[in-house]
Amino acid sequence: AAMFNHSCSPSVAYRVRTAAGIRMEFMARRAVKQGEELFISYFNPKMPKQQRREKLLQSGFLCRCVRCEYEVDDE
């Protein structure tokens, strides 16, 4: 899990299962090409752009994913 980079339009979704100990499950959200880098979102990707950016900036990270670069700022 620690090897995934962030994107606001992730190619992989994940969930944490705790029924039999802590376990993370990863699922492709769309078709993935061979050799393509896989991304998760570090938080809920349904958040508005400004909230996503503020949340990441708290960790010193300015998101420059395709979605953030081309999405119109929320009003």
Tell me the span between the first and last alpha carbons. 34 Å
How many E strands?
Answer: 4
Order of helices and strands: EEEEHH
Computed structural class: alpha+beta
Strand order of the largest sheet: 1-4
Alpha carbon gyration radius: 14 Å
Shape: globular
Residue share in β-strands:
15-25%
H/I helix tally: 2
- Report helical residue fraction: 10-25%
Low-confidence stretches: none
Main sheet overview: 2 strands, parallel
Return the average pLDDT rounded to an integer: 88
Which helices and strands appear, and what pairs or packs with what?
Elements (H helix, E strand, L loop, with lengths): L4 E2 L5 E6 L5 E6 L10 E2 L8 H9 L8 H5 L5
Parallel strand pairs: 1-4
Antiparallel strand pairs: 2-3
